[in-house]
Amino acid sequence: MEARARALAQAPYVAPDERLPPSIDALGYDSWRRIAHARARSIPLGRSGFHLQTYHRGWIFRPAVEIHLVRDGQARPLAFAPDLFDYGGAPPADVTADLGFAGLRLLYPLNRRDKLDEAISFLGASYFRFLGRGQAYGLSARGLALAAGEPGAREEFPIFRAFWIEESDEPGAPAVIHALLDSPSVAGAYRFALHAGARSFVDVAAVLYPRKRLDGLGLAPLTSMFMTGAHDRRIVDPFRMSVHDSDTLLINGRDGAWIARALRNPARAQISEFAGMRAFGLLQRARAFEAFQDLEAHYHLRPSYWVTPRGDWGAGAVRLLELPAPDETGDNVVAFWAPAAPAGPDAPLRFSYSIETLDGGERLHDLARVRIAHMTIARSLHGATHRLIVDFAGGDLSYFSADAQGVLAQASASGARIAAARVGPHPRIGGLRAIVDVEMEEAAARADVSILLRGPDGRALSETFLFPLAREPAEVTAATPAR
Fold first, then answer.
1. CA distance linking residue 410 with residue 453, whole number of Å
2. Contact (CB, 8 A) for 398 and 431
3. Which residues contact 325 (CB under 8 A, 6 or more apart)?
4. What pLDDT, in 10s, does the model give residues 178-205?
5. Greatest Cα pair distance in the chain
6. CATH no. for residue 400?
7. Are residues 231 and 305 in the same domain?
8. In 22-69, where does DSSP find H-type helix?
9. What's the whole-number average pLDDT of the chain?
10. How far is 436 from 26, CA to CA, in rounded Å?
């Protein structure tokens, strides 16, 4: 695999052939998604419990990808055949045996022993997503990000051109998938090992062979959607109070601190960076159905992804890109590790990490975590003030939930002044509520507010909550109806 990636990088880039038969080219989203791999034609991967299915080309998924099965070190190609798929009738006459596949997914008895559920999917560019028990698809991971959010640069989307899926006769063995990545700037070899279960995780090992200097490199990228939520009402939905796949970027810093950055749907694109990292992830912390009221999208069941690097990734920062989103149909949040030094064609770049799927991430640390946050505009004799109301629970806060005397809401802001900060008991959640009033400086277009609870002895009781304030249009916008 590595030899093939190295050879690919040494040759001129050749774009994939995206031509489709006329009958398939004419399909819209709804018609394309009705073409499904026939359940009866699922391919068992030995005795591991996993079954392979493929995706049909069409809609925006135009490039053909190779799929191979590997047993005892020997690979054999999986040939496309119309009878692998259910077209809802006879296959179109122009669908021929050389059409190829758009991607793949693996099924596994994730929730019940007698039922196969989708466990992981690779479809489009270098995107992949996977589930733990009781979860529904939301955010995605990617093999690589290139020039995401780089000023004046156009983002490049590498693709996985080919996959090799190992068959195993060991019951319960992880599913191992090898993938060949390619783009005008880089080629690479990836190995994914999926351990499916209540808390599924994927071990990822990769080597990149740049064709040129890579200035906007993003490792372990996560992509998600945030339209509206309790702390951000720029977009309002007439029925649903919250619409998002993720609501928090959580970072475990090299100094041991835990930073919880609230995600937003900004009026203008925003880029934020957080230096030093042990691990990071995009979390869906809101878990109550009542927060979403959506019987179809099941936002309360969307997973959280937690990325833990293996080895030292060197200097760099977690970069967060937030884009305006008028509705929920597209991703507008990207988070990844941006190395400080660019990669170049003089040497391959090797890295590895794991991605774990969680619920709200409540098992990641022993500190109190943000339960919910609201932002309002408070009026006073001095004019308008942003008021942040943040509820913290967990950790040792139950000790202080009846008497918060001595607990400090340590608040600071760049580009703004903290007008007041106070904290009091919140017996309903067994925690504390912090109320912080912030006055933005007249010349500031943006302010980043930080709130940390400290105990009477000065030790940190909570993760550090970060909230970005921006001078944005005062009016709110009604949400565009979902597709």
1. 6
2. yes
3. 225, 226, 227, 235, 265, 332
4. 999 999 999 999 999 999 999 999 999 9
5. 77
6. 2.60.40.10
7. yes
8. 22-25, 29-33
9. 93
10. 54
Write the DSSP string, 418-466.
EEEEEEEEETTTTEEEEEEEEEE-TT-SEEEEEEEEE-TTS-B-BPEEE
d(CA 25, CA 283) in angstroms, rounded, equals 37
pLDDT at 483: 42
- Identify whether residues 290 and 378 lie together within a single domain: no
Alpha carbon of 343 to those of 49, 215, 275, 347, 349: distances in Å? Answer: 39, 7, 19, 8, 7
Q: How far apart are CA 56 and CA 99, in angstroms?
A: 9
Cα gap 180→182, rounded to integer Å: 7
Between the alpha carbon of residue 97 and those of residues 33, 59, 69, 80, the distances in Å are: 20, 19, 18, 6
As given in the structure block, the two tokens for residue 312 are 């030292």
Is there a domain that residue 109 lies in? yes
Rounded to whole angstroms, the Cα distance separating 458 from 11 reads 59
Below-70 pLDDT ranges, the chain: 378-384, 472-483
Taking the C-alpha atoms of residue 392 and residue 461, their distance in angstroms, rounded to an integer, is 10
End-to-end CA distance of the chain: 40
The pLDDT value recorded for residue 474 is 47
Could you list the residue range(s) of the whole structural domain that residue 258 is in?
A: 2-358
The β-bridge relationship of strands 186-195 and 201-210 is: antiparallel
Distance CA(281)–CA(440), nearest Å, equals 29
Pair 284, 302: CB distance under 8 Å: yes
CA separation (Å) from 272 to 36, 386, 460? 40, 20, 24
Q: What is d(CA 288, CA 302) in angstroms, rounded to the nearest whole number?
A: 11
Residues 348 and 374 in one domain: no
3-class secondary structure for 59-113?
Answer: CCECCCEEEEEEECCEEEECCCCHHHEECCCCCCCCCCCCCCEEEEEEEEEEEEC
Alpha-carbon gap, residue 84 to 101, rounded angstroms: 11
CA atoms of 81 and 74, how far apart (whole Å): 22
Q: What's residue 375's pLDDT?
A: 84
Check residue 440 and give its pLDDT: 87
- pTM assigned to the model: 0.95
Instruction: Judge if 313 and 403 occupy the same domain.
Output: no
